[in-house]
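Students often ask why we bother encoding 3D structure as a string. The short answer is that it lets us treat folding as translation between two languages. Here is a chain of 442 residues written in the first language.
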Amino acid sequence: MADLNRYRASFHHWLERRLPEQRLFLRSDTETRFIRLTSETQFIGIAGSALVLGWTIVSSAILVMHSLGAGDLREQALRDQAVYESRLNELSLERDARAEEAAAAQNRFTVALSEVSAMQSRLLASEDRRRELETGIDVLAATLRDAMKERDMARGEAESLTAQLAENSEDQPEGASLADREVTLQFLTTALSDLAEEQTEMSAYVKEAETLLEEVALDQRLEAERNERIFTQIEDAVDASLTPIDEMFSAVGLPTDSILEQVRRSYSGQGGPLTPIIFPRPKDAPPDPLTDRANQVIKELDRLNLYRIAAEKLPFGFPVRGTYRSTSGFGPRWGRMHNGHDWAGPTGTPIHTTADGVVTFAGRQSGYGNIIKIQHDFGHETRYAHLHRIRVKVGQRVSRGDRIGDMGNTGRSTGTHLHYEIRVRGKALDPMKYIKAARDVF
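And here it is in the second language, the structure alphabet:
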């Protein structure tokens, strides 16, 4: 206790030396008063003022730093937003280019199919011509052989007659024998001359037929080489178009074989299934590799056509046209599950359906605000929420790319945007999975 009192006394003397006692006089008309400011009071006042000043300086510094940091974050967010919008615009242009390429590829496939049919017809005509020439050559060869036999028989008959004339010449009178010989020789000479001319003509026919047969063989070889190039180009084009769309279906986990089989069974006339090429052939005829190859190409084209029909019925399209930016993705958000993807833009931005389907709901629904629900094939449903305007009615059939509404700010929404969902048999899926899968196809 004595030590504490001593410390207090020492501290008091120290304060008095540095902060001597002050008196503040207050004078009025009738009296004069004063306020005594002890060393301790002055110390407390100075310390309090220093604390207030220090707190003010620190608070101001914190506010300035926070303001600067917020400005940097805001600028970074604006830069990220600009980059993202630029990327989305590039993806939109790329998607349009892929759609044009797909249409051009479909046209090329149609032309290629026509070329395959014409090529097969030319091959059949060439084969018929070759067979006719071979038959003609066989006929000419048989005729030539018959002529040569007749010639040999005529020569033998001539020799026999000559021998008989020689034997009978001794018993015949000289005048009669000479006349008979002249008639016989004249007949034989005429017959041999006719046979020689006929043999010459037959030889010329054979040579001409052999020349034609060589020309036909050459034409067949050239046609086969040309067909090989055409088939190779068609097969490469089919493979280049079929691979991306096959990968697109696989990327979203769709059972492609089952979907294509459903499309084939429920086909309603969009382009028609491609049937194989069938030509009448004898039962014992060997298989035709060219026809088999053409049928394989047609089979792949038919698969591509079924893919095209299925893709129109599935939500691979993009719902927003015009100026927009992505604001929120699929997944947990603020402690709740966000079952779709949000794009923000000006009020009235066109909204388009992403696949063929039928409108099952078009109206207002709790937090969704104005919403459109469209039912598609294979258990898929798309939802377009917070709309400013609805342009379709329940029961209306729509095609991919049709405008169905305008972007708005209805329901539980903090700004103008589209909330887009894809559901398969009630289960919500990430819409960007479908959009990214179709990026290289449409």
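Translate back mentally: Residues 318-437 form a domain with the Glucose Permease (Domain IIA) fold (CATH 2.70.70.10). Keep this in mind for the problem set.
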